# Entry
Amino acid sequence: MRYPVFCAPIILSLGLLVACSGGDQGEGPIVPPPPAPPEYAEKHMPAGWWGDAQKLEEGRKLFVGEANPDVNCASCHGRDGKPVKAGATDFRNPERMKLYSDTVWFWRISEGVPNTKMKGWKSKLSDDDRWKLVLFERSFGLSGKIWSVETNQWVDAGAK
# Structure
């Protein structure tokens, strides 16, 4: 079927609209992140924190900017983990988030993510506060899961 020449821009525009409108908030394909550098490789969630409701709440307050006015993760990642700014990771996507160990997550919060707007927070947040963020952010897409150092994967909290 042939279309008049004036239809081509409309068809192309519709194709771009369809291609850009759905999916994963522009995050691209789901691929594992690079491994954490050696100075972070052995860092893991402090013992007893995975089930600590108080630490989880402290992480929430940090995430939404209540605990530290210089830090507001929700301004990009959304209060519910759904990004509100282009390029921010959607923490609700378990297929993507299960690829991030607690170590990698802590490293990325600490140092930022190269070639993105995500900056490092280690100058504004203590180690404990960065772990609280890992704890809270995990609750969006990996609720009920904990990182198993032994199996090197996320497992059900009761299975450990």
